[in-house]
Design a protein that fits this description.
nine-stranded antiparallel sheet; elongated; 9 strands; mainly beta; about 200 residues
Length: about 200
């Protein structure tokens, strides 16, 4: 694969199959019972300003409504300035039966996001020039951005095959901490799988 432009803004997990509702809200309620998931990653812990990510998810299938509901909480901390990102989202997926054991699941996700940084842990050029005095950004200490984030997903699945896609940050919210504009670009994911039966002697 090749590309001209890449943009990245979300933490990623390597065991994405253990966090299906993080990948797409259409996976909410795809199991018969209630499912809980927890991921924690401490990347490069020996380096100052390591990247720490925690993700918690719970989802449940409502058979009487042919629907799945889910809750997703993600917290990410990065860099020496303790750049923090907390996302609390609710998910809803509706299950449409196309034919026997063949389903289509459109889904939506609505999230509330808190994005902040601890300016007291940063060092700016004018602080160094003035021998450690308070820098230009002292009046920004404690400032954070709050916004609503919208996502959607679609999943086609049978007992043996599943294929879907999801779009996060549909509304491209502004996450700027300096009262300017810093748009979160849309994230598009395509995913699929096939279940194989391995016969043993």
């Amino acid at each position: 694969c090749c590309t001209v432009l890449l943009e990245a803004q979300d933490p990623q997990v390597t065991q994405f199959y253990s966090a299906p509702t993080y990948m797409s809200p259409a996976f909410a309620g795809t199991t018969p019972g209630t499912r809980f998931a927890l991921q924690y990653r401490d990347q490069w812990p020996a380096i100052p300003g390591a990247f720490v990510t925690a993700n918690f998810a719970v989802d449940h299938y409502l058979s009487e409504l042919n629907s799945g509901i889910g809750l997703l909480v993600t917290h990410d901390r990065a860099g020496s300035g303790a750049l923090r990102y907390t996302n609390i989202g609710v998910q809803y997926a509706y299950e449409i039966r196309l034919k026997h054991k063949v389903y289509l699941r459109p889904a939506l996700q609505f999230s509330y996001v808190d994005h902040s940084v601890d300016y007291s842990r940063l060092v700016f050029g004018d602080q160094l020039a003035r021998g450690g005095d308070i820098g230009t950004y002292e009046n920004f200490n404690g400032r954070s951005a709050h916004y609503t984030d919208i996502g959607a997903g679609l999943l086609y699945f049978t007992p043996k095959v599943w294929l879907g896609f999801s779009v996060n940050h549909l509304n491209e919210p502004n996450q700027s901490l300096l009262l300017k504009e810093s748009v979160v670009p849309m994230r598009i994911s395509v995913h699929g799988g096939k279940r194989f039966t391995i016969k043993t002697p």
